[in-house]
Amino acid sequence: MTVDEFLASPDLAHGPRIPIKKVLLKELANLSSLTLGLDADDGLGALLRRDDLGATSVGDGAALP
């Protein structure tokens, strides 16, 4: 299965690399607010709280949410 099989084009974002994690999380929160109708500040708060819990990487490029 490839990414494009379960994500529609409007769900994908690409552009310049964002070297600061908090800026990336803010951008993700803003995109989700537009796509899902969520409050961007609430989304950012949730992403930051999850990030504070630690890494989810299990190796070889895989991660568990």
Q: Any overview of this molecule?
A:
- By secondary structure, the chain is mainly alpha-helical.
- It has one domain (3-53).
- 45% of the residues lie in helices and 8% in strands.
- The chain contains 2 helices and 2 strands; from the N terminus they run ααββ.
- The chain has helices at 21-36, 40-52; strands at 57-59, 62-63.
- A two-stranded antiparallel ribbon has the order 1-2.
- Helix 1 (21-36) crosses helix 2 (40-52).
- It is globular, with a radius of gyration of 13 Å.
- It starts with 20 loop residues before the first helix and ends with a strand.
- The mean pLDDT is 83.
Topology:
Blueprint: H1 21-36, H2 40-52, E1 57-59, E2 62-63
Antiparallel strand pairs: 1-2
Helix pairs in contact: 1-2
| Structural Rg | 13 Å
Overall outline: globular
Number of helices: 2
Count of spatially separate domains: 1
Structural class: mainly alpha
Please give the order of strands in the largest beta sheet. Answer: 1-2
Share of β-strand residues? 5-15%
Largest beta-sheet details: 2 strands, antiparallel
Head-to-tail CA distance between termini = 19 Å
Uncertain runs are none
Strand tally: 2
Helical proportion, percent range = 40-55%
The topology string of helices and strands comes to HHEE
Q: Kindly state the mean pLDDT as a whole number?
A: 83
Oligomer: single chain
Question: What are the key terms here?
Answer:
65 residues; two-stranded antiparallel sheet; mainly alpha; globular; single chain; 2 helices; 2 strands; 45% helix
